[in-house]
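Hi all, long-time lurker, first post. I run a small reading group and we've been trying to get comfortable going from sequence to structure in the token notation. Rather than ask abstract questions, I figured I'd post a concrete chain and ask someone more experienced to write out its structure so we can walk through it together at our next meeting. Sequence below, copied exactly:
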Amino acid sequence: MAKRPTQKPDRGLTYADAGVDLKTYDSFISGLGSMVRRTHGPRVIQNPGGFAGLFRLDYNQKLFKQNYVDPVLVACCDGVGTKLKLATECRDYSTVGIDLVGMSVNDLIVQGAEPLFFLDYIAVPKVIPEMLEQMVRGVSSACKDSDCSLIGGETAEMPDVYAEGEFDMAGFAVGVVELKKATDPLRVAPGDVVLGLASDGVHSNGFSLVRKVVDTRKLKLDKIHKDLDESRTLGEVLLTPTRLYANPIVKLLRAYKVKKVVSGMAHITGGGLAQNLERVMNPTVDAVLSRNAWEVPPVFRFLQDQGNIAGDEMDRVFNMGVGYVLIVRPTFADAVKRKLEKFGETVYELGEIRKGTGKVKLK
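-- Answer (accepted) --
Happy to help. Here is the structure in token form:
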């Protein structure tokens, strides 16, 4: 009589079988401590093993006490957009973490707030430590430069959602402002001077159009274009990170403890100079600006020429060389300009506020 074959029990399924390697994930997470801690100030409460970050709104030592009277929390979130696709094509993830922080923190300071802390979310199909380390190092560096504590985050490994080579990032910033010092569009008045701070390039907006130009013209990202930049490749130029304006703006606002010299501010992102500036004005005024007041970086002329893009479309999509705008009282305009230049900013006097209907007029 023939023996029946012995049936071995099937091995149980594991998370690794589903595409998630917990060992690699845990190893990566455990190595982030130094990059996170370097951003911490005295208001961060250490919470090893905690499920959330802890942060004091005020501090109980006289040296650090803020003495808030009517503190208001300010919060915002943003991402990096399709610039991430370009980072993947260039295999360079060292700048997108800076973009992530910049896009949120630059929005936050528009309200007159100082950044307090930041959280990041990174979603990937597979944990590749070298790639993620570049991203988080950028986040950490930008947080430190913005005096903003990185107190938590999430790295999600989702192989069924993201294809190989794809990923996404989101950032969440929280700040605080004394209510009476918060910016208010109603304060913008005729006679105010409009100052612009130079951008470092494309920043993190309009990259669907940027990539369309690159694809349509079959431009090589690893090639140097002499009419663009003789020392960097096209990919390096396009991946230049968003400029961080938090440190100089917070320093400027702290310099005027009583007087409200700044009427309004705007972070120039998607929608361009006009649309973003109009958001911080009231319907009784116009901003009359001169196109000759600032220098347009070569990258924008390059993209416009290569893509045969109309001028009004460029204005609508890109910052065109102005990354941040302040509206200031006329008697303080020169002093504000000097202070910002001392802090390392390139400052342009773009124009002035006049009576109107809430529009920006570029002449």
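A couple of things your group might point at:
The two ends are 100 Å apart (CA to CA).
Residues 129-145 form the longest helix (17 residues).
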